[in-house]
Specification:
The protein is mainly alpha-helical. It has three helices and no strands. The longest helix is centred in the C-terminal third of the chain and has 41 residues, at 52-92.
Length: 93
């Protein structure tokens, strides 16, 4: 099961390499693909009972964690861009 979980995340991470898509499209499709990949695996792993209450709870936790991590990454992105630009400037000098 852990191999399948790794494969689900590896595939969904590949979506960020599609350069013709906007970051918004990449993020939305990544969220949906990883959710659709992880949900059946979480059920098969027995991480929550198969009923509406737990499924809803799992969905809320998943969406909350995804949005939280996305916000952190978006907050760090400008810092990473500045650092890369400084490295490029120093390398060209």
């Amino acid at each position: 099961m852990w191999i399948l979980i790794g494969e689900a995340w590896a595939f969904s991470s590949w979506l960020f390499e599609i350069e013709t898509w906007s970051i918004t499209k990449q993020t939305i499709v990544h969220c949906l693909c990883s959710y659709l990949g992880m949900t059946p695996l979480a059920i098969l792993c027995g991480w929550f009972p198969l009923n509406v209450r737990w499924f809803g709870f799992y969905t809320l936790i998943y969406i909350g964690a995804y949005i939280g991590l996305w916000l952190i990454e978006m907050a760090l992105a400008p810092i990473k861009v500045i650092q890369l630009n400084q490295q490029l400037t120093n390398h060209q000098s």
